[in-house]
Amino acid sequence: MDGIKKNTYHKILLVSNMIHTYEGGGLPMAPHADPTDGKLSICLVHGLNKFRIMLLLPTLLFGKHIYFKGVEIFNCSSIEIITDHDLAVHTDGEIPALCSHIKVSVIPEKIRMIL
Fold first, then answer.
1. Which one of 30, 58, 59, 101 is CB 3.0 to 4.6 Å from 18, fit for a cystine?
2. CATH class for domain 12-114?
3. How many CB atoms lie within 10 A of CB 105?
């Protein structure tokens, strides 16, 4: 993140890069996102078994997932995601490609995505 911090995660369910609070028809994935702060709000869900995922899903409706173990929220101006195999990536609901390397950056008054 921001070209400085490196983290390694396993069993990632999703990584959501947001500038607004809501995704997918009203799910508050990043409840504290501020579209005017020049930062991405990253919601990372990882390390959960199937039972914990089922417990997590209802909390998404109310933005309470952020208090769930295995959910991390980061704020940064850029993020680079590298996986060991191609994964489906969607941008605003459209699936443009299978990717294993993604860079997302916020530019003042613009969003640039390189897939």
1. 30
2. mainly beta
3. 18
